[in-house]
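Handout, page 2. Input:
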Amino acid sequence: MPTTDLIPHQTITAICDNVSQAQADIAQAFALLQGAKERLTATLGNQRPYAGYANLWNKDISDYDLPRSGEQSAQYVARNAWRYVLDVCGLKAYMTERRQQELHVQLEAGRFPALTPDNVLSTLQGLTGQVGTLLEESAKEVFDWLRPWNPNSRAGQFKTNQRWKLGYKAIVPYAVEAKWTEGYHINAHRESNFRALGNVFSLLDGQGAQQYPDDLCTQLRAGLDTVRAGEKVTTPYLTLKPYHNHNAHLVFLRHDLVDKLNALCGDGSLPGETS
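Output:
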């Protein structure tokens, strides 16, 4: 389980100090740019036929924004620094896609405290205290994806997919796409699902969150690159066979991890039901 020891206090202090200095440098730089703008305007003017000669930015950045750009840039740097801290500590691997989206919205809206060592440690300690809940939520999200309960859905109509628990095999619809030349690739809308599956299995296996390039998505991409329909791609936790109807047939190689997932998330088997 992660702890705040994943980022030692002196490292957090260094991150905060460097970000603070970078923000000060940015503010100074934009102040200099504002002075340059005023100097150019006084020299070259801003009326036709010389309109635009004193511009400092291309059409994507308006001169109108210049007085606020320093503050906006500093806020942008702070958001990216928080993203870095949350990524490097590994806690996002425990979060469901919904929680990660909520975190993204918070960051984009600037609803995070100032980047200081105390605030970073407090935030990490708070998230670390929720690790058990976060893992259970993420496991449930993966469980529901692999074992769709709705019999009216496409996945719910496959006999391989069991209603009350995850079996040792599963069929996932809309999971793969055939490439124009040869091979397959993962459907862009399913990458987060496979990434979460790899993380949940790895965490249940006591191995911690998966890291690139040893994560499930990267392993599947490499294997799918040249296979034909129905050919097997093997990874440490599962095999996958892609088909032209966009289905992926999964066989889980670690039955103990499937059992753990069922114990954590499942409703139990119906009487007489077998794997």
